[in-house]
Structure formats: C-alpha cells, structure tokens
Amino acid sequence: MRSFASRHIGTDGAAQSAMLSQLGYGSLAELMDAVLPKGIRAETPFGEPVSEAAALAELRGMADTNTVRRSAIGLGYHGTVTPAPIKRNILENPSWYTAYTPYQPEISQGRLEALINFQTMIAELAGLDIANASMLDESTAVVEGMLLARRASKAKGNVFLVDKDALPQTKALLEHRAAAVGIELREFTFDTIDAEGAFGALVQYPASCGLVRDPSPVIDAIHAVGGLAVVAADLLALSLVKSPGEFGADIAVGSSQRFGVPMGFGGPHAGFMATRKGIERQLPGRLVGVSKDSHGMPAYRLTLQTREQHIRRERATSNICTAQVLLAVMASMYAVYHGPEGIREIARAVHESAREVAGALKSAGYELATESFFDTVRFSAPGRAQEIADTARERGVLVHTPDADTVQVAVDEEWAETGVADLLAALGIEAAEATAGFGTELARTSEFMTHEVFSSFHSETALMRYMRRLSDKDYALDRGMIPLGSCTMKLNAAAEMEAITWPEFAGLHPFAPLSDANGSLELIDQLSDWLAKLTGYDIVSLQPNAGSQGELAGLLAIRGYHQSRGDEHRDLCLIPASAHGTNAASAVLAGLRVLVVATDALGNVDMDDLHAKIESNRDSLAALMVTYPSTHGVYEETIREVCDAVHEAGGQVYIDGANLNALLGHATFGDMGGDVSHLNLHKTFCIPHGGGGPGVGPVAAKQHLAEFLPRDPREAPLEVDGLTIGAQPVSAAPFGSASILPISWAYVRMMGESGLVEATAAAVLAANYVASRLKDHFPLLYAGENGLVAHECILDLRPLTEATGVTNDDVAKRLVDYGFHAPTMSFPVAGTLMVEPTESEDLTEIDRFIDAMIAIKEEADAVAAGTWPADDNPLVNAPHTSEEIVGEWTHPYDRTVAVFPAGGVGANRQSQAKYWPPVGRVDNAYGDRNLVCACPPPEAFEV
Amino acid sequence: MTEMQYTKDHEWIRAEGDIATVGITDFAQNSLGDVVYVDLPEVDQEFTAGESLGEIESTKSVGELFAPAAGTVVEVNDAVADDPTLVNSDPTGAGWLVKVRFSEQPEVLSADEYAELTK
C-alpha cells in the first residue's frame, strides 16, 4: 500500500534521482548534509505515520467525544444554516480553497468579484461608504477600529471609551492590546459618558446584554471632542434596525459568521470593517477595488496596497495582512442566495423567536433586564442562574450566565427554523404570548443590497452556476503550480480537509463548557505537543488566527517578560532589512521601537552591523526578529552566533517561522537559539490559503516566556462578565480558528517523522533543481557558500529588464499565457521573482514551469533583437484573453504564439493546462486614482 | 526666478523672496512610479527640519515629503491633490507640492551635486 507521504510528495524515487544527478548529489540525505549548516542539525524524534483511513478513524474518535448541544449563548457566535450548495461548492471545493491571495488580479477575477459582493453587502448593511474585504474576527476588528480612530482623529487625547456592555471577549482583547500602544481605556455606561481627552469610542449594537438602544448619545459625545465613533454591530440585526451610518458612526465592525459560517468552536469566520468616506486611506486589511484592463473593460484588483504593512513596515499602523477570504466568500454567497428580502425574513423569524422566549419568561414570572431586544433576552433569577444553566444543559441547551443572578439566552437562525419549544422546555417554562421587541423609532427603513447580484441567484441552479462561473475565472492549485516564493503553495490533501465540516467540530460554540469539547481539546493538545517537539520549544498557543497575530503574541510576550524583570527600558527591536514588512509593523504594535540591521551582498545579516547595533543599544535591546532560513531563501551559517550575541546583551530572539518548511525534521528553532516563534499552519502544515485566508499562526516559545503568551483558559482563566476565557488574548476565541486545526493534525499524523523529513528534503531538492536549470537563463540572486539555496530561489530579472526593457511584471503576466500563476514578485528584492516549487509538485509540472521560463527568456531576447517592437510583443501584451484572439488581430506575432506559446491544442501537455484569463492586464494606477470598492452597475460591463 | 536647489531626500527647492516652493525631483517620481495619491499638510502648519510634511503614494510604494528645514506652510498645491499624475508629468513645474517660509537655512545641493548623487 502506498503511504500518504508518497501521495503528498510529488516527486517519486526515480524523479528525485534524476533531479539529484542534475545537482550532482547521490541522495536526499547527501543534499541535506551539503545544504544545512553543520551546527544546526537536530533530531526531532516523532511518531510513525498512519494511513489516511486510520487518521480519519482517530479523528472520528475524537469528534465523538465532543458533545454538541443547542447553543443559546450568543455573544457574537450564532447557529446558522449553511446552505448546502455553498458548503459543497465553496467550502469543500479546491477551486476556492486552494487559491492564493489575489495579488495577480488577471487570474483572480472570480474571488475578487465575490469579495466585492462582500464589501458591498457590508457597507450597505452598515450604512457606510466603504468596507474592506474582511477582518480576522470581531474583537480584533474592534482593536483595528480603535487604532484607525486614533490615527484618523483630530483629537489629541490618548483615551478610548469602551462600552461597559461590549462583548466580554472584546473587552479582554482591548485591555491587552491597548496597554502595549499607550492607549488608556475608559469604560462608560450610557449615563456616564465622559469624552474629555478621548479620540474614539466603542458602542456595541445591540449591546452584549441584548439591548437595542440608540447609540447617538455616545456618537454625539465623541464627535463633540473631535473623536471617532466605532460601532460593533450584529450583521443580521442590521437588516431590521437602523444602521450605524444613519446614526453618524464613523466606523462599523463585526462578524459575518451568522451568514452561513459554522461556529466551529471559535473560527475561522470573516470579521468586517466599514467606514465613512474620508478615512478609507487609513483602512487596515485588504480592499478590493474596480479598475479597468488593457481593453478598457472593468476589472477587479486589490487596491490601495500602499496602506498595507508590507510596504509601510515600521510606519504601518496595522500589522494585518490576511483577510478571511474563504469565509467572506461564503458569507457573501449566503447574501447572494437569500437576497435582501430573504435576509430580512431570517432576521424577522429570529426576532419573532426571541419575542416568544421573552413572552414565555415574563409569563413564568421572570423579570426581563431589557424590554428592547433583537435576538438576545436577559432575565433576572436571583441566586438561581447557575442552577437554571445546569438544568438547561442537561436538557441539551447552553445558555449564558453573566452573574449568579442573571441568565441570558440568544436565538438564531437554527432556533428560528426549529422553533423554540426545546429552549423553553430547557428553561422549564411554558409558551405564552410573545412580547414586543424593539421600538419602531429604531426600525430600519433604508434599503440595502440593492445591486442586482443580490436578486439574481435565488434558485439553487442559478447559485450553483454563478459560483462555478466565478471559480472558472480563477487559477488555483487545482489547475496547476503556484510557485509563489515564501507562500508555500503545497498540497492541501482532501483527507486533511475531511473533518472540518463534521458537525462535532463545526457545531461547537467557542464558549461552550470545556467539558463539552473533550475531543477538540484532545486534538488541540496533541497538535500543540507535536508542534512544540517539531520546533524545539516548550509551549505552543494555537490561538493566533493569522501569522501576524502570532508575531504580535510573541512580541507581546517578550515585552511582558522584560517588564516582569523590571526591564521596562528594553523596548528596541532589531530587524534585518530583508525581513517581511509585517515584522516591523507587529513590533510597533507590541510597543517596540524598530532599528533596521543591514544585510550583506548575499542577503545574510551583516554581522558587523549587528554587533555594532547591539553594542550601542545594549541597555534598550528587547529583541531581534530574524527569519530562518532567511527571506532570501538561504540557510545562514551564522544563525547561532546571531542568537548568542543577542542573548549576551540581554535580548530575546524571535525566529519568524515563515520558512519552517525548509527545516522541519532536520533542525529546530529552539535548538538554534530562538526564544519564541510563530508558525504558519497555512504554509508548512497544509491549511489551504482559501484565496487569501484563513490562516493560523500559532506562537511557540521556551518556558520562560510561557506565562506571557495567550493563555489556555484551562490554565489561566480570566473571568469577564461571567465568561471564562484565557488571559492575554490576541483573538476573540480562546482556541482561535479551532475548526480548521484537524487539517494540520491530519497532515502531521499521516506524514509521521519519516514523511516530514522527506517532505523538507524534497522541497529543498525541487528549489535547487529549478535554480540549477534556470541559472544560465536568469541570474540567481543569492545562494549559500555551497552554491545551494534552501526551499526557494530568487531569479534576478533586473539585467533582463536593463537589456530588453521586459520587466518582471511582463514575465509574470506572460506566465499566465503559459498556464501558470506567477512566482512572488519584487519580494524580498524589487525587480526579482522568487520561486518556491514545494515538495508537492511532480517533476513533469516543475519541468513545464522551467521550460516556460526559458521560453519567455527567449521571447525577451527576441524583443531585444528587434524581432518584435518593444511596445507590441507577446510579453507586454500579456496575458491574452480568448476574446482578444477572436477579434481583429493587429499584433506582429501569431495568435497561436499569444495563447498557445508552448504548442497548439493537442500538441503536448501544455494544452491540457491551458488557462484562459478573463481579463487583460489590469491597470493598477487607474484603480488607485479612481477608488471604487462596491459592485459596479451592470452598464459598466457593456462594450 | 532663482536657481533650483536640491536635497539628499530627492526634493527640489526654489526660493522667491522669503517663500520657497518645494517638490520632488524627476528622479524621485521616476523611482516611485505612477503616483496615485498625494497627502499634503495644512496651511499655517509649523514644522521642524526632517519632519514629514506629507506622503506621495504610488501603486507600489510610499514616499515621504521631508521638511528640508524648520518653517511654516504658506500654500499647498490643491491641483496635485486633485490630479496626482502631475507629479509624474511635471514634477518640477505644475507638480510642485508646497510653498513654505523657512525659519532656518536648509542644507542644499547644487544641480551638479544632485546629479552626482543620482548617478
């Protein structure tokens, strides 16, 4: 029987032998001996692999020990009915989940359209002008809203007002995050608003207790002092109650979870953020806009990218890079499927159910805490709250107890569908006449989701075809290789994906009693333990729901550690010039100052500069952040010396785990001197990129930092308004994006030590093979002293650009005509392409890529030789659309050259991989200068 | 009209009486690429040497407008805010950014010295 590893790793023994002989090595082990610095090898003793069936059986066993009861907890997480066509055609469809972030717009029009639908839906429901393409979760979106308010506000104060009745998990997160950046939080109730010295205010709408109230008093008070109002709103409620924008809010945030995305014990879900006009250039996260292509037709792209951390580095005001694209796409399709009237109907049914519950409670003699509510009812039960909750739980229903005298129940789409009889029975009360909900003065009268996309696909047939039409426009791993350097686009195996939709994992509320989550917790504990072993650390927190959040958690831990030792003055973070921009942005948000260390001609840390900077900042040195192997794809020989020098001066070493897939099974961060790292489960450990999220960014550390990391609620519980979470949170949910952890669990389990060791070597082999075959055509920017690279290689296109005028952009777009996703462009060095084939590609596909690159080089040479004019050739005109080649043809080269450059239909394998881009090259400048971030009117597409 | 002078931050300065006009050089606009947005300071804003007076965003990058010396903003070029392409098409003319009154002498380079810097 073939092992899972042999399915995951694309090259078999024969292919590997051929590749090794190209490089002059006899075996994978010999290659790894040559490429890895001697001093860093470390064993990671680890279990043997199991088969796919056995791994799934183990997962099934764990799932069976979860107890999924009906949730009436609410607090930002609600039961929802995922439409089956969306589950099958998006969540379980590799065309959607294996795509990358849409940096290359020409091959991403499908998900860009879905995302602009999401933005349009959010902006209109919020009553604001512009929404981004999603945030990590509601609570982190509130933090980003606070930071946005601070930078956009004219007020000078450093106080942020926080609604006493905000979600408990949001309040805890704000506490941890505000302290690091010197923001003072001031809690208020509607009777005690003191806006003096404040730059912003948060209102929860409806309130955490369920109360629907007019947020105007807060909004007016903060505006009076020149500050900005942030409203955290419930998306479903907004279809019935007045929108934040209508009350004058500047920023609205929240979660789109209840639009068809399962609770999943905490995530992933798409948070959202919308703002009024005038502050859109300060928005964090990804933003999709409309531009036009080379034929003048509308085309979508990511817009205003210069706002983002990868460009602004330490000047960035947010470290968010990832969105939650897959989940935002699901929520947008939920809206497309139901339409505005359907959404209103669901909301009305939920509201009606809540009114029934309120009526029954009243009739049973309970006093309601509020008479104005949407879906959440709080009632008083002096001294009996726990007893009521326990009884309800025995009867299969979970409720929330804010304190010993109060109980709170929230209904949702699932309750609306089944009726609330079981809920009433769980509470021991009888049905009675429904009460009123909220007053008409707060009822929504404005329209939303008026664009025709929200009223065109309400039958399943229409929706199925719409989703297929969009996915057909996109290039994902199900079409061919995505050789993006630093992004690790390896296989996301179907068996790994299997368990994420099981109701036992998908149906748990994040604040369900932990004894209901035995299976999920067992999985979390095992995965944490494995990741600790594989990285040489003592402790792992799986809570951070993106790499950027893992970085932040690690840096906050370093800061906390120094402070605990009385070293408040240690606030300087050294970061090599070659680092990913997010490093610097995260450091700033952890309250650290950034000092850049030079890199030498080979891309390595400049040791002289490092020693000099450590020496002149000995007293203030907090940390060094370094990526290993480096962002240039090289194993630096000096890594131990680097770590020792930092430790000797009293600093901590943060090793960025972005490139862990080049080390796994061969060396560990802990052993080489790291104190803390974040890992990217969406790179090394096979969680699919989802078209731009979800990611998971666990933070792993040595024991001395453990107490400063996001804490497990089982070990360091933090009580907030009756809710138990873990101390020092960086995400809304205690275990982050728990529902996708089975993917990484399954990968590690099915690979075992032997599989992981081989995967790393196979990835290194593939990168070196590409480098070796392409180095005579494109200079290799960096290599180690042995002439070898790690798991990726940088091709320097600048000499080609100088000689021929052909840019790396032209090469990237021409690769689309050859049926490829472009490699990473201009990172870490402008004018270059970084190629990472990963271990999952087979030799045929790797060779096809190499041959395409060589052919493109020949085309560039032909331009230089004058065969084709510099402004009219297959490169500058790339990519070519089908519409273009059936139209009038005026170019000095054949149509076949344009669209079948590696041979015509049936000539070779090329034709099998033919991908047709739906648009020509997208005009970046036009889109940035003419900002449009909502669905364009249908007339825009008329020729 | 007086001669144009330059700074090591790739800005040009042209003094007329006690008012100096400041913009970015052709070299700078060329390195930035297509300029899509210009963020300018408020009139009457006072600044110190080296302070950022605004940002020039292209599709790929962000450049800062550094104050060459301390002073006060007298006028900003609203035409550039409306049409950022002016920075690319006419960086030393219609694409000027701010007029300022310096309270100290900026450190400047001559045309030849600047040409040497960008060689």
Automatic annotation (TrEMBL), chain A:
<dbReference type="InterPro" id="IPR015424">
    <property type="entry name" value="PyrdxlP-dep_Trfase"/>
</dbReference>
<dbReference type="GO" id="GO:0004375">
    <property type="term" value="F:glycine dehydrogenase (decarboxylating) activity"/>
</dbReference>
<dbReference type="Pfam" id="PF02347">
    <property type="entry name" value="GDC-P"/>
</dbReference>
<comment type="function">
    <text>The glycine cleavage system catalyzes the degradation of glycine. The P protein binds the alpha-amino group of glycine through its pyridoxal phosphate cofactor; CO(2) is released and the remaining methylamine moiety is then transferred to the lipoamide cofactor of the H protein.</text>
</comment>
<feature type="domain" description="Glycine dehydrogenase C-terminal">
    <location>
        <begin position="759"/>
        <end position="880"/>
    </location>
</feature>
<feature type="modified residue" description="N6-(pyridoxal phosphate)lysine">
    <location>
        <position position="683"/>
    </location>
</feature>
<dbReference type="InterPro" id="IPR015422">
    <property type="entry name" value="PyrdxlP-dep_Trfase_small"/>
</dbReference>
<dbReference type="InterPro" id="IPR049316">
    <property type="entry name" value="GDC-P_C"/>
</dbReference>
<comment type="subunit">
    <text>The glycine cleavage system is composed of four proteins: P, T, L and H.</text>
</comment>
<dbReference type="InterPro" id="IPR020581">
    <property type="entry name" value="GDC_P"/>
</dbReference>
<dbReference type="InterPro" id="IPR015421">
    <property type="entry name" value="PyrdxlP-dep_Trfase_major"/>
</dbReference>
<dbReference type="GO" id="GO:0005960">
    <property type="term" value="C:glycine cleavage complex"/>
</dbReference>
<dbReference type="InterPro" id="IPR003437">
    <property type="entry name" value="GcvP"/>
</dbReference>
<dbReference type="GO" id="GO:0016594">
    <property type="term" value="F:glycine binding"/>
</dbReference>
<dbReference type="GO" id="GO:0030170">
    <property type="term" value="F:pyridoxal phosphate binding"/>
</dbReference>
<dbReference type="Pfam" id="PF21478">
    <property type="entry name" value="GcvP2_C"/>
</dbReference>
<dbReference type="GO" id="GO:0005829">
    <property type="term" value="C:cytosol"/>
</dbReference>
<feature type="domain" description="Glycine cleavage system P-protein N-terminal">
    <location>
        <begin position="7"/>
        <end position="426"/>
    </location>
</feature>
<dbReference type="InterPro" id="IPR049315">
    <property type="entry name" value="GDC-P_N"/>
</dbReference>
<keyword id="KW-0560">Oxidoreductase</keyword>
<comment type="similarity">
    <text>Belongs to the GcvP family.</text>
</comment>
<keyword id="KW-0663">Pyridoxal phosphate</keyword>
Automatic annotation (TrEMBL), chain B:
<comment type="subunit">
    <text>The glycine cleavage system is composed of four proteins: P, T, L and H.</text>
</comment>
<comment type="function">
    <text>The glycine cleavage system catalyzes the degradation of glycine. The H protein shuttles the methylamine group of glycine from the P protein to the T protein.</text>
</comment>
<dbReference type="InterPro" id="IPR017453">
    <property type="entry name" value="GCV_H_sub"/>
</dbReference>
<dbReference type="InterPro" id="IPR011053">
    <property type="entry name" value="Single_hybrid_motif"/>
</dbReference>
<protein>
    <recommendedName>
        <fullName>Glycine cleavage system H protein</fullName>
    </recommendedName>
</protein>
<dbReference type="GO" id="GO:0019464">
    <property type="term" value="P:glycine decarboxylation via glycine cleavage system"/>
</dbReference>
<dbReference type="InterPro" id="IPR002930">
    <property type="entry name" value="GCV_H"/>
</dbReference>
<feature type="domain" description="Lipoyl-binding">
    <location>
        <begin position="19"/>
        <end position="101"/>
    </location>
</feature>
<dbReference type="InterPro" id="IPR000089">
    <property type="entry name" value="Biotin_lipoyl"/>
</dbReference>
<feature type="modified residue" description="N6-lipoyllysine">
    <location>
        <position position="60"/>
    </location>
</feature>
<dbReference type="Pfam" id="PF01597">
    <property type="entry name" value="GCV_H"/>
</dbReference>
<comment type="similarity">
    <text>Belongs to the GcvH family.</text>
</comment>
<keyword id="KW-0450">Lipoyl</keyword>
<dbReference type="GO" id="GO:0009249">
    <property type="term" value="P:protein lipoylation"/>
</dbReference>
<dbReference type="InterPro" id="IPR003016">
    <property type="entry name" value="2-oxoA_DH_lipoyl-BS"/>
</dbReference>
<dbReference type="InterPro" id="IPR033753">
    <property type="entry name" value="GCV_H/Fam206"/>
</dbReference>
<dbReference type="GO" id="GO:0005829">
    <property type="term" value="C:cytosol"/>
</dbReference>
<dbReference type="GO" id="GO:0005960">
    <property type="term" value="C:glycine cleavage complex"/>
</dbReference>
